[in-house]
């Protein structure tokens, strides 16, 4: 395993057998409204992806369900052939319907089809990392993950997937998945105001597994809290910067994939995440989600 030097905040993390920057990028917001259809600003979307890689980001998160297929196709247009350093993580387990819903789709046939579609739309022979997404649009739901993981392992053995992760999962499903195959990450909703996974993050850190929070800035509902505004005002920065810096400081196994459709926001977020928060700042921020 090689360690890539980076000037990005947070440094790097060994995601299984690949080294990635802890400051990554989530491509979901590049699709059209409510993650359906093409972006309003196609050239702007391409510019954000290229800028992310030029800034040194080596972890880009996507899914065939975004658009559907829109963010994968944008990533391919902007970045293919991909630099060896860049890891693209995708996820399977849901389709999109005509109303923009996210119906679950995780029979073995569904998963094989989604892996094939991801390979085609990203233009690769092997997917770097596939997250098995469980739950639904409201969050994790109980239910067995074993059959789905076994299907992904079968595709991994065929050389179509390099590494596996899980997403939108309960703690029980993480344990169940790990009985089927090694996983390198868990991608769940987590941010300053949603701290339900605190114990899981610590358990994964002890085992060297990454935790990748989605909606790190609140997703469709940007984070808002008096404590967040107060700390941002005290440090003369914006709340988004504080939210990202806090995540990087939360635990070294936390990898960021904040989304944005704007180069200016991408650069602002990279700069902001480098802030060092004092113990007093962290105590104040911890009051939001506890
Ligand atoms: N596994 C799953 O089930 C799942 C679910 C959801 C998302 N995800 C992944 O997680 C990633 C992150 O989630 P997300 O993008 O939905 O939410 P997010 O990162 O919490 O927030 C993105 C939103 O914040 C805004 N934003 C970003 N930087 C900003 C700044 N400096 N100032 C003001 N606004 C700013 C963006 O608007 P602008 O475009 O205007 O910057 C966008 O609307 C996604 O891209 C996706 O890859 C995974």
UniProtKB/TrEMBL annotation:
CDD domains: AKR_AKR13B1. The keyword NADP does not apply. This is Aldo/keto reductase. Residues 24-288 form the NADP-dependent oxidoreductase domain. GO terms for molecular function: oxidoreductase activity. Keywords: Oxidoreductase. GO terms for cellular component: cytoplasm. InterPro entries: AKR, Aldo-Keto_reductase, NAD(P)_OxRdtase_dom_sf, NADP_OxRdtase_dom.
């Amino acid at each position: 395993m090689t360690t890539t030097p980076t000037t990005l905040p947070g440094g790097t993390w060994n995601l299984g057998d690949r080294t990635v920057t802890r400051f990554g990028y989530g491509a979901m917001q590049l699709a059209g409204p409510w993650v359906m259809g093409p972006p309003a600003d196609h050239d702007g979307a391409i510019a954000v992806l290229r800028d992310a890689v030029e800034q040194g980001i080596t972890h880009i998160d996507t899914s065939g369900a975004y658009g559907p297929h829109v963010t994968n196709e944008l990533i391919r247009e902007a970045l293919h052939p991909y630099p060896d350093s860049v890891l693209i993580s995708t996820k399977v387990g849901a389709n999109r319907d005509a109303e923009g819903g996210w119906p679950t789709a995780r029979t073995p046939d569904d998963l094989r089809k989604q892996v094939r579609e991801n390979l085609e739309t990203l233009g690769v022979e092997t997917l770097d990392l596939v997250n098995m997404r469980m739950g639904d649009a409201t969050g994790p739901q109980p239910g067995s993950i074993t059959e789905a993981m076994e299907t992904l392992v079968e595709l991994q053995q065929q050389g179509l997937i390099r590494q596996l992760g899980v997403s939108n999962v309960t703690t029980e499903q993480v344990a169940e998945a790990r009985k089927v195959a090694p996983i390198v990450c868990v991608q769940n909703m987590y941010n300053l105001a949603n701290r339900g996974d605190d114990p899981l993050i610590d358990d994964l850190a002890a085992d060297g597994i990454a935790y990748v929070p989605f909606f790190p800035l609140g997703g469709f509902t940007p984070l808002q809290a008096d404590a967040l505004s107060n700390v941002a005002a005290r440090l003369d920065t914006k709340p988004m910067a504080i939210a990202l810096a806090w995540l990087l400081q939360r635990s070294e196994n936390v990898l960021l994939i904040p989304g944005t459709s704007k180069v200016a926001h991408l650069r602002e977020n990279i700069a902001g995440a480098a802030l060092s928060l004092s113990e007093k700042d962290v105590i104040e921020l911890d009051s939001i989600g506890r």
